[in-house]
Amino acid sequence: MSFTTNPDLVHVLRGGAIESFHRGALAVVDADGTLRCALGDIERPVFPRSAVKVLQALPLVASGAADTFGLSDEELALACASHRGEPRHAETARSMLNKAGLDAGALECGAHWPYDEAATRALAARGETPSALHNNCSGKHSGFVCVGCLMARAAGVEPAAYLRGYVKPGHPVMREVGAALQAATGWDLAATPAGTDGCSIPTYAIPLRAQALAFARIATGHGLAPGHAAAARRLRAAVAAAPFFVSGSGRFDTRVMERLGERVFCKVGAEGMYCAALPEQGLGLAIKMDDGNNARGAEVVMAAVIEALVRLDEGERAFMQDFSAPVLTNWNGIEVGALRASEGLRAALA
Amino acid sequence: MSFTTNPDLVHVLRGGAIESFHRGALAVVDADGTLRCALGDIERPVFPRSAVKVLQALPLVASGAADTFGLSDEELALACASHRGEPRHAETARSMLNKAGLDAGALECGAHWPYDEAATRALAARGETPSALHNNCSGKHSGFVCVGCLMARAAGVEPAAYLRGYVKPGHPVMREVGAALQAATGWDLAATPAGTDGCSIPTYAIPLRAQALAFARIATGHGLAPGHAAAARRLRAAVAAAPFFVSGSGRFDTRVMERLGERVFCKVGAEGMYCAALPEQGLGLAIKMDDGNNARGAEVVMAAVIEALVRLDEGERAFMQDFSAPVLTNWNGIEVGALRASEGLRAALA
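Predict the joint structure of the above. Result:
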């Protein structure tokens, strides 16, 4: 097995020298599927992981579950989230479940300590351990539970029993979620490599070009069924109204959407994945770093894309530099290096 | 700027598909400098970071400081360590400082929460915050402090005042440490890119070939001054006797050296660095992953090298597979993938 040599997109500097670097691929397309920018291999199917949570949340709105259970913007944003397990995240997941008449026992995502270190230390300081509500996917799963509850009601069966095993590919909830993903990307999920995600639902390998197309559709509504187009608008608006809930304190997705509002809908995924919808430009994009690096790979690329493609004023441009060219400091707070987008990436976006 | 395309050394599998992969370079040499195996660019100078702590600890023994202060195997191992900040690590650093008549106030490495998550949560549960003793480099720095104390005594000056600024390249302690590094690697540190390490001491870019040579010298003593050769033997023996102190609970360096004893001296460094001495083979080796990935890049390569080059019985071979081909599980404990050495790496080592 050999790989296409994807270009170096991000450099890690120390003392002026390049210490490490990150290779990857990037696709930017419009809703007609026309490629606006491509770097590296955008045809190899790659697992989108959590970058496509907004696509997996389309049925939550389109099915009527969001209205039936009266979900708030915060709750809809959490359904699209990889959150940090901060107290408000866990409480909001609990609230979604309660609205559907259920509790954390319905979640099949597993438990882990909050990604937010302060939240983990606070939990430990109180002598507590984490529950499934702290899992970064608990909002997405609470959304699945809401969809399943509505299905159970329609079928006249007991929701908790109906929901059991909802993470399996053959369960009606997951079939609905897979159908939304397939419709948006136009990629045949039955014929592509499949794996199990961190939270136990299936993840399907999809080329970056098709993932980017799905996000151009999220940006514009073009190419989506009317129910999904309306759901996309509502989810984008919910995340823009409550960006804390899609990630958490100090994080890229939260900070950037707090600042730029509906101009950018961006969502990180594990293993160096990043997708975004740029509604004003009518574009979608998808990034995958070869090595799976998010924090200093995919994020720096995403920041460079936003700088190049989104209309920004001077203050916003300065703000984005914290993400596109962050300074690295050591334990003494001494500046030791920096991250930067490669010349090749900047040139391709120019 | 463009890079040599280093080969893919490690694959990350999910659901049978390659989700991500890690490129890098590897040099294996003997003490004469003869190259036994090379993959990728081994001539580009790269920062060794903490992988060369044993070289930086040579003056601690060679100067007589280790004997003067009566340092134990645990303390000498800690001087070579990137430890996890577990209670015994912090206590052992404190003990080294106390033997030199000083305390944690002498350390200039900065403080950070323990890398060991359980240790961090236990600290938080007691309402405490971390000190410089919890810094993963506190043992190395305590060793520097011991060297500096001996120098201060010889000069007839007050140790605490003498030590101030010991992390700076021009300080007598750091000049001694740099001289040991230059002598072992044969690389001119004055003429190579330099940066500041996480713990504030200088780090110098050195080709993998020269780093591997230094470790062949650590393995054999050949090519080192007699004092440094004796120091290398003693440090290797100390780490083999107390491998918990060079890393920590459940970690590669600790577990592998607990099992294989003096047959392997291996030491991880930040940014995908790994060096090792194989005394029975008289070989040294150095690994650098392009992307800086340690846990699933450099460690898997190191495990594959050990499997290929070190004499192992059947039980040890099975033990090493936990490191060379680990299974990946998700939050529910479900097997979702695996890491594996690439065919190219296996072939080069065969």
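Chain A has a mean pLDDT of 97.
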